Structures are given as structure tokens and as C-alpha cells.
Amino acid sequence: MLDLPEPETLYAALLARNPAYEGRAYVAVTTTGIFCRLTCPARKPRPENCRWFTHPAEAEAAGFRPCRRCFPCGPTADGDRIVSRLMAELKADPARRWSEGDLAEMGLDPSTVRRAFRRHFGQSFLQMARELRLRGGMKALTEGSAMIDAQLDAGFDSASGFRNAFARLFGHKPHVLRGPADLRADWIDTPLGGMIAIADDEALHLLEFIDRKALPEGLRKLSGFVGGRIGLGRSAVIDRVEAELNAYFEGNNPRFSVPVQLHGTDFQRRVWQQLRRIPAGETCSYAQLAGDIGQPTATRAVARANATNRIALVVPCHRVIGADGTLTGYAGGLWRKEKLIETERAYAA
């Protein structure tokens, strides 16, 4: 872990409630005995009353108590009561069709819910619920159901609505993915949301969170690499990566041994291969990564390669942070980067 920035920098981030420091820095207030995230909405202390820590355990060891407003001892979203409540509802009934009226009937303000989910997950609650319904339709198609059955399982009133949502996610209409194929695509559930895995019988070609905006473009590029031969279904490689993801999130194994096929330029593949050498629980900066591949002046090119990685977690681009220790630039969402780094601290310990 990198050292904390100067107190002046941290105090400015505290005043601005800068989310770039989530999971990387915490402020303790000597006059109250409480420590917080830098994004905490509570009244700001004077700079001379602040102490700074890199981890909640350090603040607790120094005698400070966790704030009850920002919940600094857990991932950010876990401390938001609205988010926790609605995530439990989604888990209990993923096929439910939600509307803003449903939220209002629960005594929740739809605009407040929208802001909370976008702050934590980069998308609204209704978008998240819609993607879960689409997952049901994908599963039905994979199991060979008729298109109308898959449409109803996904909770869409019209075939065109289901096809359009499917096409936005995958870059293909549903019927295209039911034909003969060399690569197979399937859904994997994780504690951080659904992921799409694409593999053949030998290697993993893509692993992305379904809400990543660049997913359809990534699927189209992969389709171009393999001549459009991508269909729905499972392979032994997808079963293997699912098992390894479960072990990773359960705290049993930080390493991924599933074979991967990296589609990119020679430079991009060198960056991605170096990413796989960063142990869980450790991080590096883009400049360090450039130096590690022998091109210390290629920091920007390294950052671009990092952003175009299509095999999330297995190629751990989330372990690259800003030179000053802040969380930056994770296409899967900074909230996920925060949780992944927090998860991997246990492996380092």
C-alpha cells in the first residue's frame, strides 16, 4: 500500500467529499473520538482536530469509534439503509418488475433511490432490476426455451422490448446466439453483480460485469476476432472460472488458474500479463506498471491498455491505483474497486 498524501491534501478531499479516496484514507476526529470516510456527510472538523489512517482497523486500534452515518468499517453501499433494503428485495425476487410507484408504496422517494444507486453502482435501481430479469431470459434461451417463453421469463411485455434489451447488452439479437458456435456465453452470479463469461473448450475469452457500458462493444470486438461464432451455453472453462470466483469471494483462494485467451496487441498483452503478476492484497500505480514492463515512459498507454482489459478479476486491473494512492479509473465502477481491494486486504493479512 502506498503512503497517505499530505494532511493538507487529505483535508481538501474531506471538504470536497472526494470519492477517489474511498477505501484508501479515513479521518478520525480527536474532539469526538469518531472516525469517518472522507465522503461522510457529517459536519467537517477543524484541520487541527483530524488524524488520518489508511484502514479502519488502525483507527479503532488508536481508540476511535466508527461513524454511524458513513459506516467506515464496511463497503460503502453496505452502510446505506435504502440500498441494503432494496438489494435484499432483489435477491428475494429477482424476476419482479419494479416501478417508481412500487418504491413510493414502500415509503421511498424514487429520486433518492436513483441517486443512491447511481452513487454506489453507477446505475439506477430500476436498471439493475431490469438486468436481473434479462438474466432470467438468457437462462431460458440457454436451456432451449422458445423465444416467447424466454421473453416472459425475463418479464418483458413485448418481444421487441426483450430483443432490444438483449441486443444492447450483447451486441447481437437473441436468435443469433442460438446457432452453431465455437465460443459459448453464459451468466455468472457474484457478490458484486452478474458477469458474462465467454469461453471455448480451452480458455476464457471474456469476463465482464453486465452493467459495464463498454460490454456490448467488447462483445462485438470479440465476435470480430472469432468470426461471429459466439453462442449461448456452458463449457468446462466457464464452470471452472465460476468455481474459482466463488472461492475468491469466499476468502479461500486469491489466485485464478483458469487459462485465458488475451485478444489485443502485443503491448496490451504484455500489460495484461504483468497485471496477473500483482499478488492479491498489493497494488501499484500506472507508472510502476509501465516500469515493470520495461517502458517507463508509456504510462498513458499502460492506462489505456488497463481500461481495455476484457477479463475482469482474472486479469486484475483493479489493483492499479493512482500514484497518490487514490482509487481511479475502474470501468467496472469505483464502488467495485473499493470492495475488491477491501476483500484482498484479508488475503494480504
Automatic annotation (TrEMBL):
Binds 1 zinc ion per subunit. Keywords: Activator, DNA damage, DNA repair, Metal-binding, Methyltransferase, Transferase, Zinc. It catalyses: a 6-O-methyl-2'-deoxyguanosine in DNA + L-cysteinyl-[protein] = S-methyl-L-cysteinyl-[protein] + a 2'-deoxyguanosine in DNA; a 4-O-methyl-thymidine in DNA + L-cysteinyl-[protein] = a thymidine in DNA + S-methyl-L-cysteinyl-[protein]. Its EC number is 2.1.1.63. Its cofactor is Zn(2+). The keyword Hydrolase does not apply. InterPro entries: Ada-like_dom_sf (IPR035451), Ada_DNA_repair_Zn-bd (IPR004026), Bifunct_regulatory_prot_Ada (IPR016221), HTH_AraC (IPR018060), MethylDNA_cys_MeTrfase_AS (IPR001497), MethylDNA_cys_MeTrfase_DNA-bd (IPR014048), MethylDNA_cys_MeTrfase_DNAb (IPR036217), MGMT_N_sf (IPR036631). One of its GO terms (biological process) is DNA repair. This is methylated-DNA--[protein]-cysteine S-methyltransferase. It comes from Paracoccus onubensis.
